[in-house]
User: What shape does this take?
Amino acid sequence: MTERIYYGDPACLEFDAAVLDCTADGGRTIVVLDRTAFYPTSGGQPHDIGWLGGVPVSNVIELDDDRIGHVVDSPIPAGSAVRGRIDRARRFDHMQQHTGQHILSAAFDRLHGARTVGFHLGALVSTIDLDKVLGAEPLADAEAEANRVVWEDRPLRILTASGEEGALLGLRKEAVRSGPLRVIEVERFDRSACGGTHVARTGEVGVIVLRSWEKFRGGMRVEFVCGARALREFRALRDAVAGSLRFLSVPPQELPSAIEGAQAENKELRRAIRGLTERLAAHEAAALVGRARPAGPIRLVVESLDDWDQTGLTALASAAAAQPGVVAALLSAGPDPAVAAIACAPDTGVNAAVVLRRLAERFGGKGGGKPGLAQGGGLTGERAAMLAALEEIIAASLPPAP
Ligand SMILES: [Zn+2]
Assistant: This one.
């Protein structure tokens, strides 16, 4: 059995201990001490890291029989004395988040009767799962109440009680383990059975911020950050907002409506461009048809064109093939990959979708359509080769002369 120093003295970050056991376990070396201040992963709180002597401790686990295993980089002989040191920054972060969770869970419970049914302390954010759904306003009320308790800088106490005594303490959260209870009390606010590590006064939590929330398993999952994480998050948001404001020239609180306005304007412009493109295409199509070459019974337009996107090429090909006897196969002239639009007047008997499919077989890309109109993209290769291929494919797909 390992004596857990953190049960009684969570502030202890350096300690002396004796090595009871050092074993290899599937490629890992695990050291068991007679006493430790290292916290093992449990109760939603991740493990500490640190050093035993000069040897790094990368993981700490609960072993089967109430012993704590320290996963280390190299063996330490049983019987030796070691000085353990815990990475303070990581531990303090965990204490801030975990204590914040107690306070926040108690606030949800006291204000709204919403009980915490799950807790996870993640690498970046932590979550509380509540057994009922709360709206934005009740959530904000609980957040405010939790911060009030933080700023009142109330002491936290560790109480030990038997199971029967525990029943009289009015615990918000019952014990998971059997035997004597370890109860964490936030003065005049909350008592919960918990084996984790917590700060000594609520003020050390700094601030508790709800980050996001969503419905989850009949209740809801609330993401939150405390203390230094909240500061980090604020800085990231500040930079993101400042970056957006440079483009929009509005005060931060007007950002959502400015983005909404910009999107609406963008949509309007796209609609206008589409209309203009169609009108321009009808005009340009006449010139294209004027350049058409007779090929057997049809008039053929096979060209690559600058400055037309997929929508424009399609409009152009459609407008050209509105003339009887015309097959128009158009490619974008710009850099790879090319887009293509193929349109065939019904009396030509040429199937645009088949022509496009054969072209894609040679130059890659994809697309589809109907006999009268097909469009595709992702074609790669020399435009001259694509144009020659189109001529060949269309010539081969002409119906036999009567
Ligand atoms: Zn706790």
About this structure: The chain has a mean pLDDT of 92. The radius of gyration is 35 Å. Residues 98, 102, 184, 194, 196, 198 surround zinc ion (CB under 6 Å).
